[in-house]
Amino acid sequence: MNGALTEEYTAAIREYLAGSGEAALRLAYESGRRALVEGLGVLELVAAHQAPLVQALRTETTEKGKERVLMQALSCLAEGLSPFEMVLRGTREGNERLQRSLSSLQSVEEQLRSQNEDLTIAHRSVEKERRRYQALFDFAPDGYVVTGLEGAIREANAAAAALLRTSQEMLPGQSLHEFVVEADRSEFRERLHSLHLRTVDRWEDWQIHIQPRDGSPIPVALTVVAERAVPAVAGLRWLIRDVTARRRLEKERARSLVGQARAEAARRFEFLAEASSLLVNSFDVEANLISVARLTVSFLEGWCFVGIIEPDGTFRQLEVAHADPALTDLATALRRHCLLRTRTNEANATQLLGPQVINPLTGAWLDGIADGPDHAELLRQINGSSAMVLPLRIHDRLMGVMTLISSGAARGYRPSDRLFGGDLARCCALALENARLYRDVVAERDKAEQANRAKDEFVAILAHELRNPLTPILGWTQALKGNALILRDPVLRAGVSAMERNAKMLARLAGDCVDLARISERKIRVEHKPTDLNAIILASVETVREMAISRGLRLMLDLGSEPLQVLGDTMRLEQVVMNLLINAVKYTEQDGLISVRSISSGKEAEIEVQDTGIGIDPAFLDLIFQPFRQGTASWLTSQSGLGLGLTITRQIVEMHGGRVWAESPGLGLGSTFHVRLPLTTLTHEESRVDIPIGPESQGRGIQILLVEDSEDILFLMKAELEELGYAVTTARDGRTGIEAAKTHRPDVIISDIKMPIMDGYELIRTIRATPELRTLSAIALTGFGTRGSSERALAAGFDACVSKPAEREELLAVIRELTERDSSAPTGTSFSLASHSAEERLGDES
To answer: If you placed Cys at 699, which of 33, 117, 173, 725 could pair as Cys (CB 3.0 to 4.6 Å)?
Structure first.
């Protein structure tokens, strides 16, 4: 049959099977008639009948349905063959052919019946499997969903419905995408797209959150598998597992692990803190490292070896520690050897850049770190399981090595332990470095102290050697100034004045050296008493007036009408003003002007010393207050000094809570110095006792023993004291001085310190040890001018100490005070006075 007739006949059978009745049979008959007209046979018609019949049988699931289909198909076939039947009734051949077709049709029917039976058996098996699958699908503990590529749900089990909080019947047709929380939807779409593109076939344990129809979001783990069908994806199978409990367990486990980690970290921190405390326990770093090694084995168990590199580069085993007392003998034997000696030389030090964990220990490694076969054998007796080598490094310099070896029973070291080991190594290395720096500092300090002592000794010797000759020079110039012959001769008078002026300058330079040393060591004691700054300025100006006039300079004084009360040391403040005035005189040329002004500026008093001298380079304005520095090279052509006056001035002003600074427009334009000191409202009336110098009755009845090795000083002081009425006995050394004291029993002994045969210290100790002499008052006369010499003199037994060159008024004041106390004190009482010398007004270093 052609295609059109086949389709027409197939449609007739289908309509008849669908229940169209006579209309379908007429269509079948018409199809048979046309087939007959076109010359087709019965077989072609039967063949056209077979295909829709088989298809119809396959769609039926019951035996009755299949029988009904067969019967209806036969009726339809008979109707289609009726034209042929009418044509073939008259012929035998057509009948036979029809008979054969019927037989063939029966055979086909039997085959169909057989196929139908097979299909029935298969259907039953499939149905059984389907029910089994449905049972598994429905009763699975986790959600199971089948969707299309776009995520539309086709099937869902009961667990999935319960998870999504909806009914199982309502899920098909909904999109799984709707149940994903907003934050995870973008990732959800991307992964679906990757499945569609076939870049992946499955996603496992995919963590997202889903939002049920009611309630809070739920964390789930998704596993999705693509069912492939050529050429595209047929569908997606989803496994949805609620991981809320798992998350909770993971959090609990994490908290537990964190708690354990914190406990371990706290334990390690406590250990490191205790180790750090031990490392700074004393300056003996080796003893501290030994303590740390013993602490380490009590913390970690096992063994601890500590080796340090000596300053000469050799490696020394410092300690071998173990917590088990039973292993003391083994530890003692191991201390006789040196671990890692061969690896700490310069060639191999790069192998010890950081903490290393060796796990497990091998015999070859033990042989490599041992210093010989005997040492290696001892190390094997440890039975160690692992080791951690901790280089003690600071700034890429290896200072030692700490080696930890775990015993067989202890937990072996792991790579994670290197962090802890590194912290311990840094603490130990820092202690070694601090010890090295401390040794260097101590060495440098000792050098500095030696240099400082040498400097102090030099200053003391310099002061002594300067003051000894200055004493007679100043004494004689003062004596000669009043001599009638000198007064009548202007040349001699000018010469004596020049000698006195230069001798005082030498004394001032020596005093500056001593003052600078004292100030740098904080050895000057400054008294804070109410004093009038204007009076100090006035006295200082009068002192330098003669010097200024001799250089052809004009002095202009402008003092405030009201007193400027400050808390200060009158002598030291006079020294400040004198230094500024002398500095102005030195650097101001002839016909220049020096003006001194005092004003009250708020809560401060200000002194201003201005000159028209050589000026100061602005770059040097601060440097001039540093020792041995001057503002310009012009000092070469002026009356230069040591450059200490301004340094001492600044220190004294700062000790009074004030400040000093200089201003100058430039070289050749003069300079101005300012001093500011805090004002005070306190007042203090000082009673002054004027010491009469002229009357011979002042010293009458007082006998003095003068012990001095310098003939010039001895002669001058004897003459001055006798002129004042004192009875003076002299001696040239300490031994003759003791004999003279025993013979003459003086009221006061004045003794030099540096003398031949017996010095002043031995003399006073002998005096104090002699019963009949021990109550005598004694004054030390020294040219050293240092705190040590003054304290040593008082400690040796002197009642007072006066520095050379001693002002006559100062020495007489001390003699008077001692004799007055002796006359009013009970018998056997001795007195000790602080030095009245300007250079010796000393206090504690604090």
So the answer is: 725
